């Protein structure tokens, strides 16, 4: 196995200290703040030790089989809120209604897996009833920001011919704009009902929950002739776990502990473009 260690700032001597736990044959710098440690020993005990040491040093780590490369993958599927973008759109929409604390509390419980997603979304959207639909544009213009490294990651993966899917428990208003802005191939999300320029507090059609996210990844794979094993799936909340479970590589991005524990790798400190450092080019 190769061990990749990367951070927002790294010092080689700290990387060497941590890597020594896995007894690498050699250590190669692959970027300003990223290192590949070659031919490491790997078992649960080593992984646990690296996990503790890397977290303390604010470094992200990943054990990757030497034979794997980015070209093994044909599709990247991403959650939107708090993954591709930094905000939870529904919390920011609620802020326009003066209800952010109430809605954010429900969002957090759902992301931790303490509340069933469909119920949580229905409750949150209901609180938006009567809000002027122009609030959606304000959230997009004033608050929506891409996560660090998002554009660089997508450009790198798209350059390899990889397809992209944005699948979200959020709203079409935002995923449609992300699709255009980032040249994404597929999007799927919830549609807010708007009547006479105001939100009704309801969603049109079925709700995109964890099960529907998984089905969407499977559907896009089927349509494009791609195996789920050839997908990279990234997310941050409990409703991403089902689609992450079928991926060839699951990535927890600044995620809740329940998601970090089940993902193949976790990016806690670096940006989304940290994925590009994981494999030999």
Automatic annotation (TrEMBL):
Pfam families: Hydrolase. GO terms for molecular function: hydrolase activity. The keyword Hydrolase applies. It catalyses: O-phospho-D-serine + H2O = D-serine + phosphate; O-phospho-L-serine + H2O = L-serine + phosphate. Its EC number is 3.1.3.3. Pathway: Amino-acid biosynthesis; L-serine biosynthesis; L-serine from 3-phospho-D-glycerate: step 3/3. It is an enzyme of class 3 (hydrolase). Its cofactor is Mg(2+). CDD domains: HAD_PSP. It comes from the Bacteria. Belongs to the HAD-like hydrolase superfamily. SerB family. This is Phosphoserine phosphatase. It comes from Herminiimonas contaminans.
